[in-house]
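The protein record passed on below.

***
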Amino acid sequence: MTNQFQLEGNIIPFIPEGDFYFAKGVEAYQKRKFDLSLKWFKKAINDKPDNPLYQCQASIVYTEIGSYHNANQLLTQVLEKHGENYIDCYYLLANNYAHLGLLQDAIKYAELYMEKAPDGDFTEEAKTLVEMLNLSEEDDEDDWMLEEEDDLLIYQETAFYHLEREEWEEAIAVLHEMLTLFPEFSQARHEYHYALFFIGEREEAIELEEKYWSEHPDSLFSCMNLAIFYAYENKEERLTMCMERLDNVYPVHEEQKLRLAVTFTQIGLHEKALHRFRLLRKSKLKGHPSYYRWYSTCQYYLGMEQAANDLWQEGCKQHNILAVEAPPWKRDN
């Protein structure tokens, strides 16, 4: 998505007299000196932490530099405290969620904005955004709505079973058949590429995933897969490109959060991984051996050996498959 927001022309025009920090932040923004602008806005917020105007403008700068999660935190705070007086925040949230690839959330906030401000400054932009997202929605793996299809559910559960156990050949067989029957189910395609890579068909897996990503540049799954592939293949420049995207992504759904935490662990960014694992709700993920496998690995390589062993033992009690395999850090030695 291209950024719908340009501060110049759309900035909330009221600037309190004598507010030096805020005025300097606006000036720096208009010169596109985003880092400097953000420093001034932070000073303004520190001076008057309850001023919603300062938070809104800081959020726009965060959006410009791709820190969508930080932007959304500020906007959510404004809505919680000031609600109907800052309706434009709904559109800003929609725009940020679109950048993050969270289409349902983007649509929800865009529609809220249009409902609350039918003649607002960004009504046309919101309408356009919703139209674009509705067209893209069928390609988003998280919004696939076929839960009532018994056959698809059976395939999903079977593929999940083999993938979580790293049984790549069995997973590939199931996923290949699944893609034949349900070719539009994009998550199966990404899982197929992932299993293909770890069975040894690395070149083919990378080629297929790169082709998909070129056609669907907002695909979070593609970006995560390619980050792992590039790390294993020592393609540093391409890995850096993926990391610039993933650093600013904070998914809503727990399984997506887990997949991102696992990705950071697999590519050796253990500090980032630990932060993401700590954001997870463990109660939602006890059925995932990968939670225990990769969280404990992350802890181990950060020097938290006791915590890693404790978590691994807990995982072994939950999942027989872990009880019969060595922890990843012992396999690496």
Remarks:
- The first helix runs from residue 7 to 10.
